[in-house]
């Protein structure tokens, strides 16, 4: 699998990583055996980047990663996140003490002295311009609790604000065939500053696999049901913020552009060939999905004609729903 440097961290990571929100919760139950199988399949296939967070299943995703890695000799780069344990969820909660407590809990969950990367987990917008937060993160780098830090953002504007801070080593943002705005300014700015980019929600929560129809239903414990209108968190995290029926219709056209290649792989291939992207981090609920997603790294790049078709699809069907919002 192709690897790329993650910004200035010194780490080389696979272009296809693994998102592990699914191994914690919010996507319906993923049992222990399946979770272990997903992690093993990814690592066996050459994935060297895992993305997790302290709140995925209230620590369950991190703990499952620790257990999977205990049985293996190689160590992937594990990017976790901190900040959504803030209660109430407001900027004033991002104190050095709270940040330290969240980081220490992740160190215990993952069973490491030093976290490879901590990303601020889509905090309130004001946090991205609070110098005290960056000072607290710098202090944790200095004392070895974390090797590096970055940010996960909802909006391009938040990402650009974070990039003003020299200690930021990575930006995580939604980027997919239905979410193109980061291509305009965020990715070029990150590249110019030597900052790594992790592209999340690359399949638009599964829409870009082409397997959903207008009548598909999701379980009560699946955010594609309970957050359809942003009831629990930013609606942009569910189907990339594209209204479901609009997304299903656009995905049908996307499948046509993919020809005889699996749409999920084409969607991932599109992400990894965008200049400035370090890695794409698709989530997976089963071993077969992991293997399919890893195979995307080996697909030939999309042609100019296909890229133009995808841009047109976005402009005609999707742009009006997402472009000015995130
Ligand atoms: N705020 C944040 O920082 C934030 C927010 C969201 C996500 N993330 C991170 O980004 C990762 C990826 O985003 P995401 O999981 O939300 O969305 P995603 O990667 O766009 O979609 C994942 C879903 O797509 C389906 N899928 C995956 N591979 C497939 C394949 N080969 N064939 C068919 N279906 C496939 C699965 O759906 P089924 O479950 O229906 O099988 C899977 O649960 C997360 O796991 C998490 O690590 C971070």
Automatic annotation (TrEMBL):
InterPro entries: AKR2_Oxidoreductase, NAD(P)_OxRdtase_dom_sf, NADP_OxRdtase_dom. Residues 16-314 form the NADP-dependent oxidoreductase domain. It comes from the Bacteria. This is Predicted oxidoreductase.
